[in-house]
Specification:
The protein is mainly beta. The protein is 14% helix and 42% strand. It has four helices and 18 strands. It has an 18-stranded mixed beta sheet that branches. The longest helix is centred in the N-terminal third of the chain and has 13 residues. The termini are close together. The relative contact order is 0.18.
Length: 283
């Protein structure tokens, strides 16, 4: 019977099935269907998707992310932290500072050790993209993408950001009343977004804090989204509500991330990565 070994990990509740492609050999044509199968709660393992940890020609390791609908994502902040933890603890890398290749870019990872195990991971997520055509968002070009969407006879304003994948950030007054499961899926598939979009609802707080919920492209409601937390923080800095070089604590449903947009342009994300279980999946 065909099978492969897996590790289930999560970053603030954003959980994926991780497969070590240094040791396993899954066929390219089967990856989408396997991601759908393993993600199912009742007949699979249950997850937000599947992440492959692969050899790389340009970095120390490569990450490939498949959502639970089988689509391949360009990036995943919580996934990057888990990949970094796995790579170091399983000897795929030797140094605490190394590089991870994604579809969209190459990022720097720093693992922080506690009793020889990785407890926290810092990822340099690179520079945010605000230019409308590069996010991408259809319509007239803007260097700083701001627009509105009509939903249920009400206009909802958003800021567009790419952190290697597209985001639409909506500021709300009360996070508890955010239209996460109604406006979220509507915006995800809206014609403005030719590659669909991740949808964040945020509530700005004093003292460099943000409350945050997310409807993820291809996965729906998740406990956390690392690239989304980065997008939310830089969008609000761009709006003048917070400052560069000052850490912003983003409160996600699964826990907190610390996001810093440095003056040199790079966005840094720091947060936990946790191993849940390991096992064998039978195809």
């Amino acid at each position: 019977m065909n099978s492969f070994r897996y590790t289930k990990m999560h970053g603030l509740g954003n959980n994926y099935i991780y497969v070590n492609m240094f040791e396993e050999n899954l066929k390219e044509e089967d990856l989408s269907s396997i991601a759908i199968s393993v993600s199912k709660i009742h007949t699979g393992i249950g997850s937000d998707g599947m992440i492959l940890i692969c050899p790389s020609d340009v970095a120390d390791v490569k990450m490939r992310v498949f959502n639970n609908d089988g689509s391949e994502a360009k990036n995943c902040g919580n996934g990057l932290r888990c990949v970094a933890k796995y790579a170091f603890e399983h000897g795929l890398v030797k140094d605490t500072n190394f590089k991870i290749e994604t579809i969209s870019n190459i990022v720097k990872a720093i693992v922080h050790l506690e009793n020889d195990a990785v407890s926290l991971v810092t990822i340099n997520m690179g520079e945010p993209i605000f230019q409308r055509s590069l996010i991408p968002i259809s319509g007239e070009e803007q260097e700083f993408a701001k627009d509105q969407i009509l939903f249920e006879d009400e206009l909802h304003s958003f800021i567009g950001v790419s952190m290697g994948n597209p985001h639409a950030v909506f500021e709300v007054r009360d996070i508890k009343n955010a239209p996460l499961t109604t406006l979220g899926p509507y915006v995800e598939k809206h014609e403005l977004f030719p590659e669909s979009v991740n949808v964040e609802f945020i509530e700005c707080l004093p003292h460099n804090e943000i409350n945050f919920v997310v409807w993820e492209r291809g996965s729906g409601v998740t406990q956390a989204c690392g690239t989304g937390a980065c997008a939310a923080a830089v969008a609000m800095i761009q709006e003048g509500k917070y400052n560069k070089d000052e850490p912003i604590t983003v409160h996600l449903q699964g826990g907190d991330l610390q996001i810093t947009w440095s003056s040199d342009g790079d966005v840094w994300m720091k947060g936990p990565a946790v191993t849940i279980t390991e096992g064998i999946y039978y195809l």
